[in-house]
Amino acid sequence: MTTPLAATILEELRSIVGAEYVSTIPEVVERHSQDALRQVFCAAGVVFPRTAVEIAAILKLANRERIPITVRGGGTGYTGGAVPVEGGIVLATSRMNQILEIHPGDLVAVVEPGVTNFALQQAVEAVGLFYPPDPSSWRESYLGGNIAVNAGGPRCVKYGNTKQFVLGLDFVTPTGEIVVAGTRTPKNATGLHLESLLIGSEGLLGVITRCTLRLLPKPETRQTFLAIFATAEAACQCVADFSGAGIVPVALELLDRTSIRAIEEYEPSGLPREAGALLIIEVDGLREAVARESRIVEQLCRRHGALRLTVAANEEESSRIWEVRRKMSP
After folding, report:
1. Among 19, 86, 118, 184, which one has the highest count of C-beta atoms within 10 angstroms of its own C-beta?
2. Which 3 state secondary structure label does DSSP give 244?
3. CA–CA distance from 166 to each of 170, 184, 242 (Å)?
4. In sequence order, what are the beta bridge partners of 310?
5. CA atoms of 160 and 151, how far apart (whole Å)
6. How far is 91 from 69, CA to CA, in rounded Å?
7. Is 148 exposed, middle or buried (0-12, 13-18, 19+ CB in 10 A)?
């Protein structure tokens, strides 16, 4: 049974963020007390701050009163990081949802932690830029949460995980100090790089309040393939031969027979249930390089006995191929 928050604590929280942004309504608390697994550990209340100053005040109050704090982003994870197993207060970052800056000249974006991965990708692609990290939950997951778990996604084969794209972080320590770490330049050889400690820390070391992220020019083109194999061994051997052929795909995903059947049972996609494995392969870059690498990918897939090879003819078909992989998460 969760210990209720004292009336004086609730009143102080309301004075920090505003009465409408503190909730003890059971439905609201329950919704913010679970992640994607839907296992509920109810908090005593939920608070929705808007600024780093408000977060600092909340954490100082929590320290003084010895109240557990759980930071929550989009709640799309499966690892329990957003679940208040100790009760206390859920600090929800959903109001901190502004893209503050996109600077094409510097290849930098500055965002608040409650911006979704999808929203940033749409915004930067509109000006010819590219933010590579793309976890399966990209439409709903928050960038603060992506950083807190060092999210990857299919494109990490070529571009790496989220940590490769974090230049700086503003955060509030558990005791309520506001820290600005990192810079907005890729070349930064001074200081303790405290921003790196926050990446993958799952909220243990502080609350992220602002993210300075590295962008790339948007690749000129890309090509997506879906290859079906009789065995997982054949698919893996095909992958092993990519490096020998001088290819580093932007994205590479293998789904085994169990995964294929799970997808077909969840939402049929026309995959052969008896297949041993499938590969989703994507290459990107300059048009001439992608054309060359695409020919090599097709040759390798056929050499290793691909039963079926689908080549996306356009962006719509590419999205349909990737939707197969994204269905694995639900």
Report:
1. 184
2. helix
3. 11, 9, 29
4. 226
5. 10
6. 7
7. buried
